[in-house]
Amino acid sequence: xxxxxxxxxxxxxxxxxxxxxxxxxxxxxxxxxxxxxxxxxxxxxxxxxxxxxxxxxxxxxxxxxxxxxxxxxxxxxxxxxxxxxxxxxxxxxxxxxxxxxxxxxxxxxxxxxxxxxxxxxxxxxxxxxxxxxxxxxxxxxxxxxxxxxxxxxxxxxxxxxxxxxxxxxxxxxxxxxxxxxxxxxxxxxxxxxxxxxxxxxxxxxxxxxxxxxxxxxxxxxxxxxxxxxxxxxxxxxxxxxx
Length: 242
Fold this sequence. Notes:
Blueprint: E1 2-5, H1 18-24, H2 26-29, E2 35-39, H3 41-47, E3 55-59, H4 85-91, H5 94-103, E4 113-116, H6 127-139, E5 147-151, H7 162-169, E6 181-184, H8 186-206, H9 212-222, E7 227-231, H10 237-240
Parallel strand pairs: 1-2, 1-4, 2-3, 5-7
Antiparallel strand pairs: 4-6, 5-6
Helix pairs in contact: 5-8, 7-9, 8-9
């Protein structure tokens, strides 16, 4: 089962173009494979006619994400137009959406859940190739007791040092794992969410925000057993190598 979410955010340039973004997501929405997609009710009404019958649209509002204190520290090296507090907070919610999708599985639902960023089509720009890759990941064997996730930077045989990741994660984005695709069965996905809650508590105590991939790297440093990382980049390999 594919899982995704779309939460339009208002940034310094004003209200995003929801119609345009939903139109760009049509290759995902129309594909007739089991999907759970979280989005606001107004977006559900806008895109329902483009969705395949196997698409389950789940209401979720931006106000359902805990608010962020705008005074909290952000990573130093970032896109100041895109990497605003609300956006970083939303990326941290991916594992929550996945755990909710896993927890709400009904009898007959696929055991394998795969997160796909709502706008991932942009790394393909080829509808047939993108949809073929999505069908392929749906058929992939369920990872055994791990979260399978795309990774860009090599970790090395010695693993990651937590203190170093924490220091570097305050400066820039860390691409040990890419955030666009990850998956597994319910147990490991809910374990990842529990680990996220621990790390997010630390961030709150420090009054800091990071991208989700930086927090995942912190978890990888402590819990390498929880992940199975495969080589990818921000190219079609992020799906095709799954």
